[in-house]
Design a protein that fits this description.
alpha+beta; nine-stranded mixed sheet; 8 helices; 18 strands; globular
Length: 368
Amino acid sequence: MTSAATATPLQFAVTKNLQAKSAAERDEVLADPGFGTRFTDHMVDICWSRGGGWHRPRVQPYGPIALDPSAAVLHYGQEIFEGLKAYRHADGSVWTFRPEMNAQRLNRSARRLALPELPEEYFIQSLRELIAVDGDWVPSAPETSLYLRPFMFAKEAFLGVRPANKVAYYLIASPAGAYFSGGVAPVSIWLSSKYSRAADGGTGFAKTGGNYAASLLPQAEAYEQGCQQVLFLDPVHHKYVEELGGMNIVFVERDGTLVTPASESILEGVTRDSVLQLAADRGHAIERREISIDEWRDGAASGEITEVFACGTAAVIVPIAMLKTPDFAIGSADAPAGELTMSLRQELTDIQYGRRDDKHGWMLRLDA
C-alpha cells in the first residue's frame, strides 16, 4: 500500500452541483445552521480496492449513496469516521485545526477495523478540494464553523466475514452554529454503572460507529436522569473513569495539576491533547493515569479536585458541575464553571479563530 510519505497528489475530477443553493438560500441556512442537519452542496468520494489502491478521486454533488443490499458495512459494521472543523478568520480566510492528528487517528481506526489506511496527504487534500468548491459555506458569525465529517466504510457486496476488498472514503460538511446558544454552561452527567462503552482489547480507541451505537441506550438513561451526558467506567474493573459518550474528561487538582484517564480503550482526543499542551505551556503539571470514581468523590469532598471538564471537537470544552450515580452524587447542578476551565477554552478558541498567535503551528489554511 502507498505510504503517506510517498503519496503523490490525487487528480480530482469535479462535477458541480447544478441544483446548488443560491447565495440567498445559503445565507438563510448560515443564519441559523444548527448542528449536523444541513449540508453543503458537494462531497468528496475516493474509491479503494485491494488490487487498485486509492483511485477515482472526485468532488461531486452532495446526495444519496447507492449501496448493494449485501454491502459489508450493512452486515458487519466495518466503518470509521472523523470530525474536525473549518474556521473563518477575520480576513475571510478559511483554516482548520491540526488535521494531521485527525488523519493519523483515522488510520489507527482503519488498522483496527481492517480497513485501508488513507495517506495523510490524501486526507488533507480532500479537505482542500471540498473547501475549493464549498468555501462559501464556512460561516463567519462568532463561534460558528463548518463541521467536516470524513468517513470510510466497506462497500464490497458479499456475505462473508473477512475484510472487504472494496472500500469508499467520503467527506461531507455541515455548517455548525455555536454549540451553546446561551453561552457555555456547566453540565450534569450520569454514571453508567451497568453498561460499558468498549471492551477490553476491543475498539474503544477507534472512532467507529459501533462504539457510539453502544452508548445510545446509556445516553438515553442520562437524559431520563436530567443529565446531558453519560460517563463510562473501564471495561475490566468497572471503577476507573474512562470518558463520556463523545468527549474526554479532565480533572484539575488544587495545586493546578491536570489529570486525565489513561486507558487503551479511550479515544485519543485532538482537543484534549491540545488543551493539555496549552496548560503545560502555562506551567501546569499533566498526569495521564488511572483515576477511580472513589478518588473523584473523595477529591471533590476534600477540595483536592477543584474543577472537572469534558472536551471534544463539537463543544471544545464543557465544564462539569455534577456527576449523578444510582447511589450518590458528586458536586451540585448549580456549581459554577471553573476559572482554569474557561480560561483554557478561551485560549483554544482564540487560536482556532485566529484571534491569538498560533505558537504551535496547529492551524492549516485550506483556501490557499
